[in-house]
Each structure stands twice: as structure tokens, then as C-alpha cells.
Amino acid sequence: MNIISAKATGSATQIIAVLEKDLEKLSSDFPKLSNKLFDAKKDSVYWTEKDGKLLGYIGLGEGKSPKSIQNSFRKLLSKSADKFDSDCSISFLGELNEEQVINALIGFQLGGYHADFYRKERKNSFTDLLVKVDANLDELESTIKKSEIISGSMMEAMKLVDLPPSVKTPEYLADWALRLKGLENLSVQVFDEKKAKEEGLDAFLSVGQGSGKPSKFIIIDYHPKDAKAHLGLVGKGVTFDTGGLSIKTQGMHHMKSDMGGAAAVLAATKMIADLKLPIRLTTIVPAVENAVSRDAFLPSEVISSFSGLSIEVIDTDAEGRLILADGLSYMNKNFSPEKILDFATLTGSSVGTFGYACGALFTKNNELEKKLRLASEQSEDKLWPLPLWDEYGKEMDSDIADIKNYHGKPIAGAITAAKFLEAFTDNHPSWAHMDIAGVAYGDSDFSKSKTGTAFGVQLLLKFIENELNHEQ
Predict the structure, then answer these.
(1) Where is the Cytosol aminopeptidase domain (predicted)?
(2) CA atoms of 144 and 138, how far apart (whole Å)
């Protein structure tokens, strides 16, 4: 899809985007409509013809919800694909601000995304569609460019989650990261299993030892010369999770999505580098497959970790926290960022608490919690806090090791998992954990089955932009 800033005239298909309050401001360039035909409320669409060309009106309601605007425009392209051919134009009527136009263009571009990678007859992805945009903005070209970078990163995150595990292996994630090397001020390291062993990443290696697909420990460092802050990201990268020898008994076909945290931080890193934002961003993705074989790690094993803490393995299906433990410890010791955020599809318990409406947020830093909550509200990648009280940490005490990876009880699963992770942060003063098991992969209006959501990508953008604005 090629989007340009131009007077939106002469195109085969012309779209008029209208806020509800601006409905009466339709200029003489466009046919006036009865409120009975088109009321400009959210998701309202009306198609007509003018001079032999298609003319579509799309209502944005009050325009206050970013996700609402995105979804309206995504539906426009995805559900009305037959109305678009080689070129189209979009006119934003009235006083839409930059954020509203960006979200509309993000949604329109997402409308060309489909998870039908292996179907013989694929849906149209509109890669050759020319889109002319007309909006009353001073910096329209930069607005368009930003929308392209954000939507492209979101589609990368969605694709990473949606690809089958036969393709999306730990090596695939490593190769994806290595392709970022061409970006300015960005370096990539990938540890193979031999190097990871030399580094002492034993908890990480234990999880993947039952798989024939080698584990990869991925480190990306975006370090612009004008960096105003340093943020560390860690993403859970379990490319498929059988549960190991504590094997899952249901829903295993969805476990290709168990790297939704990795998808979020990888795509966000690419986005931040493409936007050339002045922040140092260090991203670690421990990438493994948790499989069943004669070499798989065993319940009751005691394993070591990068931090030096020994871990009693109660349940091999509590594997994500093991690789995150080494990722967090390695980040803290070797890079010492001012803030560390980890994203992980970690527990069914978080889904039991919040359903599919939001992710669980854990941090002891009140200021960091406020900033993440604000970014959550701005992006509508919703988070809600749960406690990290010390009482829950006692549940992870082990008789034989320094800590156990699972308390074995049907209560407080998300919280005790977060307390386990906390033990590997070396009491970092500004660390937060996001359990996104219910929101990284789910049902939508755009597919018949569950697909990736790109949850976390826009949240991270808002968080980082807010941090940079605060630094100015």
C-alpha cells in the first residue's frame, strides 16, 4: 500500500471520514445526506455513486477512542474489499487531529492483513493500492509516515504470532531480529546453545532441551547518540508450548501464540528504531520450544540460573518464567537500564481474573505504574494492576532449592508467577511485568479463528513518547 498526501480527487473510490459533530459541515464538494441514511455515528458507513465513481462515507462517532477509529477503518477495507481496486482517496472532513488521522490510517492499512499465509486463494492484501490522503494537518506527510511505521510494526507482531510453529521456530525469531541490523544505531546478538551455556543461562537452556529445534537467546540494542533514557524490554519467546512432561490437556493448538510477549517487544523495537526516537532500547528475547522427548527437563529437577539462584521445577508447564528469569537477570547485570519492562503470555490465572479485556500489570514502583496505566489508557492496550505483596512470595519457597517455579495451588497463579520473576530482578527499582495471556491472541471481527492482536506495540510507543516528552 502506497499512501501519499494529495488532494483526494479523481480516484476510483473516494472515502469521506466524518466525526459526528461535523456532519453538518459537509462541503458542496460532496452530496448532502439525510441523517436517516448516514448519521456519522461510530462504524456507520454509507455507499453511493458520484460521476460514475464510488463514494463512501464513514462515521467516526465522537472520535475519542483510538481502537474504535482503527477498527472502523480496518473494517472498511477488510469487509468492503470489492470496492477498492488500484487507487482510492480518503478525505478527513472537519477538525480531526493528528492522532485521529494516524489511527484511521493505521486501521486502513491493517485492513489488508490476513492470516491466510498458506491458502491457495489468498485474500487481497492491497500491497499495490495507491491511497491519496487529504486532511487539514500542517504535517500530513509525517503523519502518514508515522502511520505506516506503526501499522507495519503491528502487522509484524500479528504475523509472528499467527505463523505456525513449523515455521516460527526459535531460529526464525533470531533471523527476524538479525534482519534489523541494517537499521541505524542498532546492533543484534544471538547466542546459540553453546554460547548460552558459556554465559550461564541454564534456566533458559533447561526449557528447550527437550526440543529438536535449538534455542536462541536474542539481544537487540538500539542506541542512538542522542538517547535521553534507557529502557530494557524482555519478551517471552516460547514458540510452541506443549507443557513439557507436565503436558497440557486442552487447547494446545493455540500454543503457537505463547510468544506474544516476544512479538510485542520485537515489533516495538523495530518501530522505535524506524521512528528514530531518542531513547536507548535494549531488548532481550529468550526463544525456545517447550517439547516432550527423552531429553525434556523433569518435574522435581533442580536447575541453576544466570542469577545464581537454584530453582526446583515443580511443573514444566511453568516454563515461561524460567526463560524470563534468565532474561531479566542478564538484562540487569549486563545493561543496567533505568527501567525494565517484561511482556509475557504467562498464566491462565490472568485470564481467569480479567478475561480477554486486559492484561495484568505488576510493579512495586507507583510512578512506573501510573505511567504504564496512562500509556494503557492512551493506546487502549488495557492493563490493570495486581499486588506484589510479600505474602505471595512465601508460596514459592522450596525445601531443596532457593525457589520453586510453581506453588502447585489453584489460587493466585498470576501473582505468584510475578513474585517468582521478581526474585530475578535483583530488586531493580523500576521493573514491571505485564501478563498478557488473555490479550495477545484472541477472537476478532477479521478472522474465523483466534489471531494475533499486536497488544503492547502501541502501548510501548505511548509509554516511550511520554517518557521523552517528560525529559524535554
Answers:
(1) 157-460
(2) 12
Active site residue 119: no
Residues 291 and 436 in one domain: yes
Kindly state whether residue 142 falls inside one of the protein's structural domains.
Answer: no
Write the DSSP symbol of residue 81: G
Please report the pLDDT score of residue 7 as a whole number.
Answer: 73
What b/e readout covers 366-400, taking b as 16+ CB neighbours within 10 angstroms? eebbebbeebbebbbbbbeebebeeebbebbeeee
Regarding whether 181 and 47 lie in a shared domain, the answer is no
Length of the chain: 472
Quick one: 72 and 171 in the same domain? no
Q: Are residues 131 and 163 in the same domain?
A: no
Express each pLDDT in 210-269 by its tens digit.
999 999 999 999 999 999 999 999 999 999 999 999 999 999 999 999 999 999 999 999
Residue 245 near residue 296 (C-beta atoms within 8 A): yes
Catalytic (active site) residue 248: yes
Q: Are residues 120 and 169 in the same domain?
A: no
Place of cell 502447585: 408
Are 165 and 266 in the same domain?
yes
CATH number at residue 188: 3.40.630.10
Catalytic residue among 213, 321, 339, 419: 321
Based on the structure, what is the number of domains in the chain? Answer: 2
Q: Select which of 42, 145, 228, 248 is catalytic.
A: 248
Name the burial class of residue 34, with classes exposed (0-12), middle (13-18) and buried (19+) by CB atoms within 10 angstroms of its CB.
exposed
> For 118-172, how does the pLDDT look when each residue is reduced to its tens digit (9 = 90+)?
999 999 999 999 999 999 999 999 999 999 999 999 999 999 999 999 999 999 9
Q: How confident is the model at residue 29 (pLDDT cuts 50, 70, 90)?
A: low
Q: pLDDT at residue 377 above 90?
A: yes
